[in-house]
Amino acid sequence: NNLRTLIIESSYISLIEKGSFDNLVNLYELNLNFNQIVIIQNNFFLLLKNLNKLYLKNNLIQFIEEKGLHGLINLIELSLQNNKLKIINKNILYKLGNLKIFNLKANSIQI
Q1: DSSP per residue over the chain, as a string?
Q2: Cβ proximity of 85 and 104 under 8 Å
Q3: What's the pTM?
Q4: pLDDT (tens digit, 9 = 90+) per residue, 78-92?
Q5: What are the pLDDT digits (tens) for 53-65?
Q6: What does the pLDDT read at residue 94?
Q7: Does the pLDDT of residue 6 top 90, yes or no?
Q8: What are phi and psi of 106, to 5 degrees?
Q9: Nearest CA to 44 among 60, 88, 3, 63?
Q10: Are 35 and 9 within 8 A, CB to CB?
């Protein structure tokens, strides 16, 4: 599949099944803003190795499992602003060496 940008904004999505994006190996940008996603499960984005931009702002995300962002080796921008995050496990950023922008604004993160 040659799809480069996928925008699924404001669609009332609360759960995305693992494997939903596995065939989109050339995806560069994924926008899931303004949905109702609550959790990012382990290895959810594992096959999206070309993804550079992931937008998850204005959801209801409370938790990102430890390996929830694994596979995103080329990710440059990650937006998690305005969710329900309270704790960020330091291991979620493991192998995100290219990350330049990490937006956590408007969460209730405890330091």
Answers
A1: ----EEE--SS------TTTTTT-TT--EEE--SS---EE-TTTTTT-TT--EEE--SS---EE-TTTTTT-TT--EEE--SS------GGGGTT-TT--EEE-TTS----
A2: yes
A3: 0.95
A4: 999 999 999 988 888
A5: 999 999 999 999 9
A6: 81
A7: yes
A8: 65, 40
A9: 63
A10: yes
User: Could you tell me the CA-to-CA distances from 109 to 16, 53, 69 in Å, in that order?
Assistant: 24, 22, 18
Which pLDDT score, from 0 to 100, does residue 106 have? 97
Encoded amino acid at 9, one letter = E
78 close to 98: Cβ distance less than 8 angstroms: no
In the prediction, which pLDDT does 91 show? 87
The token pair at 10 is 């404001």
What pLDDT is stored for residue 4 in this prediction? 98
CA-to-CA distance for 87 and 107, rounded, in angstroms? 10
Q: Under a CB-based contact definition with an 8 Å cutoff, are residues 28 and 1 in contact?
A: no
- The radius of gyration of the chain's CA atoms, rounded to the nearest angstrom, is 13
Question: Given the structure tokens 């390996």, which residue do they identify?
Answer: 67
